Amino acid sequence: MAQDIRVKICGLTRPGDVDAAVAAGAGYVGFVFFQKSPRNVDVATARALALRVPPGVAKVALVVDAEDQRLREIVEAVPLDMLQLHGAESSERVREVKARFGLPVMKALGISEAEDLDRAARYAGAADQLLLDAKPPKGATRPGGNAVSFDWDLLRGRDLPLPWMLAGGLTPDNVARAVSRSGARQIDLSSGVESSPGKKDAAKIAALFKALRA
Ligand SMILES: O=C(O)c1ccccc1N[C@@H]1O[C@H](COP(=O)(O)O)[C@@H](O)[C@H]1O
């Protein structure tokens, strides 16, 4: 299964964690630019991490309702392949960001019920792909990275207008079930492969790929 599923490991903060993700077979690595996150990195750190990533592995910057000035600071400092917009960005804002910064955009959508997937249509022709994550729990201080899953069966048989990536509470223990129930071809993990918030665990990353191969 692993060679078919493209894996993103998000929220990398340390060189060894980047190396572990790449060595295990990640197709994307993500850097979080959101101050309330324990995975937040500054641009100098992100640049150093990004420079370790070999060609063929996509480097993604995750931002939340970021203004142009902040995006410019990130894009000018860090070699990137994609922007992940994880806030309440409208389809117009997605188009604007793509046109201004010249990078493909993955738009995150919070999902808890089937109707939430209808919002995917708004982003057709605007975003390059979608990231489907659980809605944050009440009182959460960040819109993602909360180790919460949504009902993967909501995706069964759904024909979405854009390529999509499954996220939210995925772990080495549940990933095989999540992939088989949702039909995901791409997945994104952050807290499920950590030893503590912001610190990835190489053994958990290896276990994730083992689970996908099983
Ligand atoms: O990881 C964060 O801290 C974060 C902060 C703000 C927005 C999104 C964030 N993470 C993304 O959330 C999903 C799910 O994460 P998890 O596997 O449930 O921990 C994933 O896309 C992360 O990239």
Automatic annotation (TrEMBL):
NCBIfam families: PRK01222.1-1, PRK01222.1-4. The lineage of its organism: Bacteria, Pseudomonadati, Pseudomonadota, Alphaproteobacteria, Rhodobacterales. Its EC number is 5.3.1.24. CDD domains: PRAI (cd00405). Keywords: Amino-acid biosynthesis, Aromatic amino acid biosynthesis, Isomerase, Tryptophan biosynthesis. Residues 7-210 form the N-(5'phosphoribosyl) anthranilate isomerase (PRAI) domain. HAMAP family: PRAI (MF_00135). Pathway: Amino-acid biosynthesis; L-tryptophan biosynthesis; L-tryptophan from chorismate: step 3/5. It is an enzyme of class 5 (isomerase). GO terms for molecular function: phosphoribosylanthranilate isomerase activity. PANTHER family: N-(5'-PHOSPHORIBOSYL)ANTHRANILATE ISOMERASE. InterPro entries: Aldolase_TIM, PRAI_dom, RibuloseP-bd_barrel, TrpF_fam. One of its GO terms (biological process) is L-tryptophan biosynthetic process. The keyword Repeat does not apply. It catalyses: N-(5-phospho-beta-D-ribosyl)anthranilate = 1-(2-carboxyphenylamino)-1-deoxy-D-ribulose 5-phosphate. This is N-(5'-phosphoribosyl)anthranilate isomerase.
